[in-house]
Design goal:
Tetratricopeptide repeat protein, 69% helix, TPR-like_helical_dom_sf, 18 helices, TPR repeat, 333 residues, mainly alpha, globular, TPR_rpt
Length: 333
């Protein structure tokens, strides 16, 4: 049997390996071509799945693209397998949590990094992050909100899995994951709201509305409840209740990017495209590229407000970013 890799004439077959893919990924990253960079890093990881450096660098690309959950998922995997050899992961995780608005978690990981690497490369940056988070205002008021590191790892995986199914409108799959999340992490309120949302669109409308209204009654300041109920009553054509929640949302301007996006999407879903477009324009696109809903609903607003060419361009950009959009037709069609 002949060697398939033997030299034939003057041609030497070139067989790419992980280091080659990694170097191409770094090159693309330095040029801020994040989509291309991520493709190269994924190839490198496929070639050497246990190389922590490849995974760490891929996580940084995810951070630049706004996919903070995915970034942290990769980093926690590195910590679980390589531990103290990659302490920089603690700082990177803290930074991602800060972007997500999970401030207690950001503080915890920043402090862990400083403890484990007092003279590390990111020690000054971690200290600055702690100053920005203003520890005096986020003291541990409720011990129930504290998560053990192992629990956080599991939570991130559950969040990403639920996010995957919700973005693809795979309601039954999302419900199954969210039911597990609610059982395992009863204090993680976002899972309950996502569960109500999936339940509504799976056809259990009355039950979803009842549960969300009950939650709002117990937690009058719940922004997620207001957004869900506005969406629910729009689909139920209950104009009186819809107007009530619309007026509430119209006066709320969250600080965190994820919540800003959710309000913009809510306005788009209920057909208030001018309000939605204004909210979308306030967003930082670089932080939301990991969300298909950003492209789906922002382009929808543009289309129905007469910006058809702009809408088509944004939709096509989203299709390049997300396979789930590439197999769909634009919402307006």
């Amino acid at each position: 049997m002949t060697n398939p890799y033997q030299i034939e004439g003057n041609i030497i077959p070139f067989i790419p390996e992980g280091d080659f893919y990694f170097s191409k990924g770094v090159e693309a990253f330095q040029k801020r071509k994040f989509d291309l960079s991520l493709k190269w890093f994924k190839k490198a990881i496929a070639d050497k799945p246990n190389n922590p450096l490849y995974q760490c660098q891929a996580s940084i690309v995810y951070t630049e693209m706004g996919s903070y959950h995915l970034a942290n998922q990769m980093l926690t995997k590195v910590l679980s397998t390589h531990g103290e050899d990659y302490v920089d992961c603690y700082y990177l995780i803290a930074n991602n949590y800060a972007h997500l608005g999970l401030l207690q978690d950001a503080v915890k990981y920043a402090e862990l990094y400083i403890e484990k690497a007092p003279d590390g490369e990111f020690t000054e940056a971690a200290s600055s992050l702690l100053d920005v988070l203003d520890l005096s205002e986020i003291e541990e008021e409720d011990d129930d909100d504290e998560w053990m590191l192992e629990e956080e790892d599991d939570l991130i995986i559950y969040q990403e899995t639920a996010f995957y199914h919700l973005e693809r409108e795979e309601w039954e799959e999302a419900i199954a994951i969210l039911e597990e999340m609610i059982t395992l992490f009863p204090e993680f309120s976002q899972a309950k709201h996502e569960y109500h949302y999936a339940l509504f669109f799976a056809g259990e409308r009355e039950e979803a509305i009842t549960m969300e209204e009950k939650y709002l009654q117990d937690h009058p300041d719940s922004l997620f409840s207001c957004m869900n109920l506005a969406c629910f009553f729009a689909h139920e054509a209950n104009q009186e209740r819809l107007q009530y929640y619309t007026e509430l949302l119209d006066n709320i301007y969250p600080i965190h990017e994820q919540q800003k996006l959710r309000i913009a999407v809510t306005f788009a879903q209920i057909g208030l495209f001018e309000k939605a477009l204004y909210r979308f324009k306030l967003l930082h696109k670089s932080k939301l590229k990991g969300h298909p809903s950003y492209y789906r609903w922002f382009s929808t607003c543009q289309y129905y407000l007469g910006l058809k060419e702009t809408a088509q361009h944004l939709w096509e950009e989203g299709c390049k970013q997300h396979n789930i959009l590439a197999v769909q037709t634009p919402p307006w069609k």
